[in-house]
Amino acid sequence: MTELLTKETFLKKVFNFEKNKDWKFEGEVPCIIDFYADWCGPCKMVAPVLEELSNEYKGKLNIYKVDTEVEQELAAAFGIRSIPSMLFVPKDEAPQMAQGAMPKHDLVKIIEDVLKISK
Fold first, then answer.
1. What pLDDT, in 10s, does the model give residues 44-61?
2. Which of 80, 86, 95, 97 could form a disulfide with 75 if both were Cys (CB 3.0 to 4.6 A apart)?
3. What distances in angstroms separate CA 87 from CA 1, 64, one per listed residue?
């Protein structure tokens, strides 16, 4: 199940950029953050794929969504210029950003290679 993040929950679960200058992941397991908007067609295409992945990797991976229309400060903090944009956050390494709607097999490859999670 994907979870919608507000700035407040983002600061607690992912990264408190108000307190830390350097990246410090607050989560227990790696995560993907989907920066999206309700009016975005490609975002709507990716949403069911992310739901599937959240079920397939339950307990190993959290998938969060950030509505860029509502959480403009979060979108600005990560320099989001186009959507969908996804932030892939490994447990102990720097996060990586990717833009555009990706097919499931590409997302699985990133989950395995960048986030180092296997099914």
1. 999 999 999 999 999 999
2. 80
3. 17, 10
